Amino acid sequence: MQFASLGSGSEGNATLIQSGETLLLLDCGFSLKGLSERLKRLALTPADITAVLVTHEHADHIRGVGPLTRKYGTAAYMSAGTASAKTLGKIPHTTVIAAGEILKIGSVDIEVHSVPHDAREPTQFIFNACGRRLGVLTDLGSIPDELAQRYSDLDALLLEANHDPEMLARGSYPASLKQRVGGYWGHLSNQQSAQLIEQINVGRLQHLVLAHISQKNNSQAHVMAAFAGLPAAYHLLQLADQNTGFDWLPIT
Length: 252
Prior knowledge:
With about 250 residues, the chain is an alpha/beta fold. The protein has 10 helices and 14 strands.
């Protein structure tokens, strides 16, 4: 199994997971044209995608989902709440999923988990293939203990580190938006992400990628400082970029 990002941040998110002939797209927050251009970097086209999984209905995660599925007939998987969003438009082939399910798409088994975020019915996923486990955990304002337990014993983790609380507090966002971002249903701070890493078993981790990093309320220096006291994980750290994401990372 391997994974890559086509871009991660408030302007658009899309992650690829591949095992054998199965190529999954997690979210599509870019236009279909933008998706196609970003896929070229990995020598892929939208027609290569087996299925798209959608975490929730915010624009930076669904912008290209409708056009992709309508033009290429790509199968889509999402919760009932996400599917009810009018902004998605008509999706030809939708499978409604729910937290607690284990999906099988091609050669990949996928655990569906509910997360606290200000969306209709947001989900996040753990991907299992070839005896390896990849967790993706972004767009949530807090990490309940049960969820933290589910994300232990992974071989790779793509984890949100959205904001630095002090930068958010001093920044230009209106008070209501600051409360939303920093609240229970918002986004994880650098410190919350570091606390999760302290809780889970990182002995198996081959890759730890921090994602959905705010361009206004965070910086690479703040992210790295938050993890500096975690030597077992610090040497693994990689940051997902808004413009280029990151290239394929193999999970061996």
